[in-house]
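Design request, tokens follow.
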């Protein structure tokens, strides 16, 4: 039987720090990538900490900073999960498709909620970063700006 052991967060962070000296790894209360200061914040006390940490690092390595449209944010999430898979192999971290899918699902749901017309529930078109327009009834509505991280946390 093959048992995959995920390294402890401390030893993983130490390895990552050596491999990516330009990235700052900071323990905090959420998982987050911040392009200001090239900082990965991670929550050490989490069942999937290793993989979620690699996901945030992936955003950093892909130089994710800005996005113009919500759909682009979803693409960035998908790319970061693909990159996290490569990192997981590299650093001996178990990769769990279910974590990826549930994370992406929360973004899809978020995108769906934001883009649904408040009047007729038709899916609207994002015309500006924080504005959607319904092509069916011409209703326009504003949404708040999303961040690349912490989406899950403040959605629920
Ligand atoms: Zn992400
Ligand atoms: Zn409408």
């Amino acid at each position: 039987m093959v048992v995959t052991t995920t390294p402890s967060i401390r030893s993983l962070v130490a390895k990552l720090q050596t491999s990516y000296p330009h990235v700052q790894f900071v323990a905090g209360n959420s998982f987050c990538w911040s392009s200001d200061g090239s900082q990965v914040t991670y929550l050490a006390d989490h069942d999937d900490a290793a993989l979620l940490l690699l996901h945030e690092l992936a955003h950093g390595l892909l130089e994710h900073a800005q996005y113009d449209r919500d759909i682009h944010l979803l693409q960035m999430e998908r790319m970061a999960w693909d990159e996290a898979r490569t990192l997981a192999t590299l650093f001996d971290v178990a990769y769990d498709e279910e974590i990826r899918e549930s994370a992406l699902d929360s973004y899809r749901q978020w995108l769906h909620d934001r883009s649904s017309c408040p009047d007729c529930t038709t899916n609207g078109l994002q015309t500006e970063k924080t504005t959607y327009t319904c092509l069916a009834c011409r209703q326009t509505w504003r949404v708040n700006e999303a961040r690349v991280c912490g989406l899950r946390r403040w959605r629920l």
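Comment from the thread starter after seeing the answer: thanks! Residues 18 and 71 are 34 Å apart (CA to CA).
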